[in-house]
Amino acid sequence: MKKGMLITAPRHDTVTEYLSAFSVKIEKNCNKKSIFCKTLKDELASKEKFSKTLKKLDCNIIFLNGHGSEKSVSGNKNQILIKSGENEYLLYNRIVYARSCEAASKLGRRVTKNSKGCFIGYELPFEFYFDETWVTNPIKDNTAKLFLESSNLVPLSLIKGNSAKESHERAKKQMLKNIKKVLRTKSKESYALAESLWNNYFGQTILGDNKARISNKT
Amino acid sequence: MENKNSENEITETMKNSVIARIDAQVPSNLKLAMGSYGGMSKEEMIEHVKKGDEIGKQIVKRHIQFLRAVANGEITDALASLK
């Protein structure tokens, strides 16, 4: 297995547009640290391409963005990329972060039960609020930033060489900080935002080898 | 078992409370991205809760989960743990 990161970044609807826009920073940080990174954008985030690329590049970190369910994570146009019991072996022995709904509950458990890998994901639907004003330029959306920049800390921390557990905890700590921040503003939407941030905080889980890090997976 | 079922049951009172909170707390420029349902406006969230469909049930569940965490001090403890 090689030191590097494979990112999936479908952009077929507003939600995936946001997830992908906030993933650009991850690739930039990999480049800064001279860590190999490949992003499968749009139609490249297909089951076939994902499988071929992973087999060829053999990256030890996988960052999945897209819609999900308890047993699967999807790519472009909701085509299933990884499904429990079908091709989850592709994730074996790697560090996986799935920024998608519920995938930790069954897919993540199966992956970490059958391999020595680590899976960070959500046991509940991952959610975020976004401001319609910024849908054409998601990265400027300060509301979405509260959710997506905190979740970005998982891959960013892994790139820095921190363990999976440290990376998981850093992201969760930032979610708490953001809850504190929004509650202090006492604006109309404070409680709604805090509630969603709490949902992600509560639902984010780490399974398998939590000591795994980018450098010791070879 | 009976207790567990009653804990998971979504009552009309819960629905009405959730609808009132969404109405009061979600500005019209914000949309909620949850699951594969795309971005939901405040009106769409309320509609799902009223219908009691899967999305509506999920919206109610997360509201209740948050309210419980506020009431039992879980959120206060978590925030207090921040240095």
Please characterize this protein's 3D structure:
The complex is a heterodimer of chains A (218) and B (83). Chain A is of the alpha/beta class and 218 residues long. Chain A starts with a strand and ends in a 10-residue tail after the last strand. Chain A has 7 helices and 9 strands, in the order βααβαββββαββαααβ. In chain A, the strands form 2 sheets. Chain A has a 6-stranded mixed beta sheet with strand order 2-1-3-6-7-9, sandwiched between helices. Chain B is mostly helical and 83 residues long. The radius of gyration of chain B is 14 Å and the shape is globular. The longest helix of chain B has 18 residues. A two-stranded antiparallel ribbon of chain B has the order 1-2. Chain B has 5 helices and 2 strands. In chain B, helix 2 packs antiparallel against helix 3. Strand 8 of chain A pairs antiparallel with strand 1 of chain B.
Give the SSE map.
The complex is a heterodimer of chains A (218) and B (83).
Chain A: E1 2-9, H1 14-21, H2 24-32, E2 36-41, H3 47-57, E3 59-65, E4 72-74, E5 80-83, E6 95-99, H4 104-114, E7 118-122, E8 127-131, H5 142-159, H6 164-185, H7 190-203, E9 204-208
Parallel strand pairs in A: 1-2, 1-3, 3-6, 6-7
Antiparallel strand pairs in A: 4-5, 7-9
Helix pairs in contact in A: 2-5, 5-6, 6-7
Chain B: H1 2-8, H2 12-25, E1 30-34, E2 39-40, H3 42-51, H4 54-71, H5 74-80
Antiparallel strand pairs in B: 1-2
